[in-house]
Each structure stands twice: as structure tokens, then as C-alpha cells.
Amino acid sequence: MAQKVAVITTGGTISTLEGPGGAVPRRGGAELLEQLGEAARGLEVELIEFAKIPGCEMAPQRMAELAAVVSRELSRGEIAGAVVTHGTDTIEESAFFCHMTVASEKPVVFTGSMRTGSELSWDGPRNLLDAIRVARWPRARGHGALLVMNEEIHSARFVTKGNGLALGAFHSPACGPLGRIYNGEPMLFTAPALARRIVEPKLDSNVATVTALSGEPVATLGEALARPGLRGLIVAGFGSGRVPLGWVKPLAAAARSGVSVVLASRTGAGAVDDPYGYGGAHYLRSAGLVAAHEMPAPKARLKLMLALGNAMDSATMREFFENE
Fold first, then answer.
1. Is residue 216 part of a domain?
2. What is the pLDDT of residue 250?
3. Whole-number Å distance between alpha carbons of 71 and 307
4. Which of 111, 158, 254, 315 is at 20 to 30 A from 48, Cα to Cα?
5. Do 70 and 28 sit in the same domain of this protein?
6. What is the pLDDT of residue 193?
7. How far is residue 128's CA from residue 161's CA, in Å, rounded to a whole number?
8. Do residues 315 and 280 make contact, with C-beta atoms less than 8 angstroms apart?
9. For residues 46 and 87, is the Cβ–Cβ distance under 8 A?
10. Separation CA 240–CA 50 (nearest Å)
């Protein structure tokens, strides 16, 4: 069985070093691998330098280009899996994009670091080594895209960044990690139960996002709905999917007019539904809004861009969001 791993570097904190103006991406893939030292002995790796940018610059179209590179590398018979080093600001989004668009059963493992290469106890080398070990591990096949950091293995479908600076920044609120790395050996405890639909990496970027805030006027929603060419709207609602009551009728009207409106939760976790009779999530869903269960708004935005880009009808889109 193939053992070689394609390591695709994109920049991010894992590649940064301090300079006169602060830390910026400097290290390339070869320099990252050098940091592994003797621990990398026996590991077959092929490097692909995709970019050297901070995570905040990884836009959806670039994610599509990255997914194409991942698919190309995984199609090669001698490659067992792929690792993508990435800035943590958007790593969960790029990983989720690959989860939805890369058809290979081979592992694609995203990793990064929370500390720069100039800081004490830099976490980059250990995360990279763990990711390579998971990518060449036969049991990691068939689970879609994964994120490996801080000795944890997460599904790209559920993982999110829950802390801006801590080493253990990433968690999966719905289900916890799929596994862990103990003494350098990966262990898998569970697997995602949701179906994974693979779609073409076609994007429709005519999607806006609004967040429900206390006392936020309906004009804020109106500005989003007035965006020229708008085809989709992500609403990050209160709790399990509520919005200011003045927003309810405009959202229902937008859904009736053909705009695909997806209702997420500001909490980023939990089902989007409720028992309330004053225009809450249950009413909004019955009015045509689609629920983004257990999915934060940034991921729901990418999913909606792909759904629209793949010309899904309303029934298929609802299934895509609510059951996959």
C-alpha cells in the first residue's frame, strides 16, 4: 500500500517568523519539514507549495483552487493521503470546502499552528508530524477531510475554532473529536454518521450574511436583501434560530421571492428549531428558510455558495443542509 504523503503548504501561522514589523509567513515546506528532524525518518513526503499567505487571505475561489490541487494529488497511485498546512483563521472553512468537493476516499488532513515559529513551544512541528501520520494511516480513509491539531483528530464537517489564541483552539461541539494521537500513534474512536454529498467546486458568490443583534433595525437586513444580484442569504440568528421580530416578514418574503435563505445560529452549534409561536425558527422554516443544523454561519455560507453554484433545486438544497 502507498505510504507517500503529499504535503501542500499555503502559509499561515505555522509558516511565520518574527520580523521587524511582526510575524509574517516566511517558511516554505522544506523548512517546515526540517523542523521535524529525526522524527520524520522513514516518512515519504512530496512537497507542493501552493501559497504563502495568512489565513485571513484564503477566499472561497482560492479554496476551490486548493481543492483542485488536493484532488489532483490524491488521484496519483503512489500517494496515500494529503496534508494541507493552513492559517487557522479560515482552516475550518478550507477543510470543509474539501470535505464537500474532494471525491477521493484517501485522507486529506488539514493542520496549522497557534504559535509562530519564533515563539517558545511552537506547536507547528508536532501538528505537522501528527497530520502526516494520520494522512498515511489506512483507518483515516473514507472520513472526508480531517483537521489534526493539538493531538486531536476532528471531522471538517463539525470542527470550529473556539478560541483565538489557545493551543486547544479547535473543538467539535456536536460530537467531539473523532480520535486522538497518543505517543505519536493515531487512534480513531468514532466516525461521522452523516452522509457526505460530493459536489462540483462551482461557486456562486452572490451570497450575503447578516447576524441578528439585540435591537438591530430591519434596515440592516434590508441592506443585505437589496444587494444587486443576490441569490442567497445566511442569517446567523439568536439561540436556536430566532431573529428580531421586525425581520420575520422580510425574511419570509425573500424566501418566497426565490432567494435561498439559510438560518444558522450565532452559537455555531445545536439544532435550528424551536417551539415558539411568535415568529421563531420553526415559523421561519415553515416559511421556506433552510436550517443549518450544527453549522456555524461561515461554513453555511460556503455550503450555500456551492449549492447555488451546482444549481440545486429547493428540495435538494434542504436535504443538503438539514440531513448531510
1. yes
2. 97
3. 20
4. 158
5. yes
6. 76
7. 18
8. no
9. no
10. 39
Alpha carbons within 13 A on the beta-carbon side of 57: 10
Contact 231, 259 (CB under 8 A): yes
Q: Rounded to whole angstroms, what are the CA distances from 140 to 7, 66, 96?
A: 16, 20, 16
Which pLDDT tens digit goes with each residue over 267-288? 999 999 999 988 899 999 999 9
What is the residue range of 178's domain?
A: 4-188
Rama region for 258: left / alpha / beta (φ>0; ψ in -120 to 50; rest): left
Half-sphere exposure of 216 (CA within 13 A, CB side): 17
Determine the Cα angle at 35 with ends 76 and 65, to 5°: 40
- Evaluated on CA atoms 269, 164, 89, 189, the torsion sign reads negative
Distance CA 301, CA 306 (A): 9
Helices (H), ranges, the chain: 29-34, 60-74, 91-101, 124-135, 218-225, 245-256, 281-286, 297-309, 314-322
Q: In this structure, which amino acid lies at residue 84?
A: V
The answer to whether residue 181 sits within a structural domain is yes
For the stretch 96-126, what's the b/e string if a residue is b when 16 or more beta carbons lie within 10 angstroms of its beta carbon?
A: bbbbbbbebebbbbbbbbbbbbebeebbbbb
Q: Please give the DSSP secondary-structure letter assigned to residue 282.
A: H
CATH assignment at residue 161: 3.40.50.1170
Q: Which single residue is written with the C-alpha cell 429547493?
A: 314
Residue 257's CB is within 10 A of a number of other CB atoms, namely 11
Of 49, 46, 48, 149, nearest to 95 (Cα)?
Answer: 149
The chain-wide mean pLDDT, for the chain, equals: 96
What pLDDT does 2 receive? 78
For the chain, the distance separating the N- and C-terminal CA atoms, rounded to the nearest angstrom, is 31
pLDDT at 286: 95
Query: 37 with 171, same domain?
Result: yes
Number of Cβ atoms within 10 Å of the Cβ of 182: 9
